[in-house]
């Protein structure tokens, strides 16, 4: 299992910007409205003018409502939990999902245990796990600056439908 790490962004750089200036390296999947890499991993899409896709914006909102208390604003880390923007330079999508949903205990010299609680039962996390991933990944590779994205795409209908089904009435 991959551990938390503090490494330079150069070790796992962002895909280069496309000819139209967008960043994130994915293509739009019309069935769910998400941007994905060729292997199906969700990714972010940031236009040349700074407009972020809906899911990256949603990830920002959810991160700051559910995760920042431990992992710090902007996924920058704290004395309580690691900087996820650094962790996602080495952690793949599946490991991220498994860790968030099932939790993790990391033993450190001196008998200290760092515990990431299992959040698979928390709909405010489980229903938007892809959104959290793409937001943190955009922060990790340096394509999304600290702070609230100034411009975002509108929420696509597939996102509305999915949230209604996942969160319920």
Structure write-up:
This protein is α+β, with helices and mostly antiparallel strands. It has helices at 54-66, 68-71, 84-87, 93-102, 123-126, 129-140, 157-167, and strands spanning 27-29, 34-36, 42-43, 104-108, 112-116. It is globular, with a radius of gyration of 16 Å.
Summarize the structure.
This protein is α+β, with helices and mostly antiparallel strands and 169 residues long. It contains 7 helices and 5 strands. 34% of the residues lie in helices and 11% in strands.
Q: What global shape is seen?
A: globular
Distance between the termini: 38 Å
The neighbouring-strand order within the major sheet is 1-2-3
Helix content percent band? 25-40%
Main beta-sheet annotation: 3 strands, antiparallel
Query: What is the count of DSSP helices, taking H or I runs of 4+ residues?
Result: 7
Radius of gyration: 16 Å
Question: Which structural class do the helices and strands define?
Answer: alpha+beta
């Amino acid at each position: 299992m991959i551990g938390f790490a503090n490494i330079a962004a150069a070790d796992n750089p962002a895909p280069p910007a496309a000819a139209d200036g967008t960043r994130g390296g994915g293509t739009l999947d019309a069935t769910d409205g998400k941007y994905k890499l060729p292997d199906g991993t969700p990714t972010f899409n940031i236009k040349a003018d700074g407009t972020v896709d809906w899911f990256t914006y949603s990830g920002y909102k959810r991160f700051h409502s559910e995760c920042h208390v431990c992992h710090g604003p902007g996924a920058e880390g704290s004395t309580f939990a690691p900087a996820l923007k650094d962790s996602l330079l080495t952690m793949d999508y599946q490991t991220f999902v498994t860790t968030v949903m099932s939790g993790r205990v990391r033993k450190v010299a001196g008998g200290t245990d760092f515990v990431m609680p299992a959040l698979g039962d928390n709909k405010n996390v489980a229903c938007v796990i892809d959104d959290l991933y793409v937001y943190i990944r955009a922060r990790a590779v340096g394509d999304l600056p600290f702070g609230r994205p100034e411009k975002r795409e509108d929420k696509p209908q597939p996102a509305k439908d999915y949230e209604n089904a996942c969160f319920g009435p």
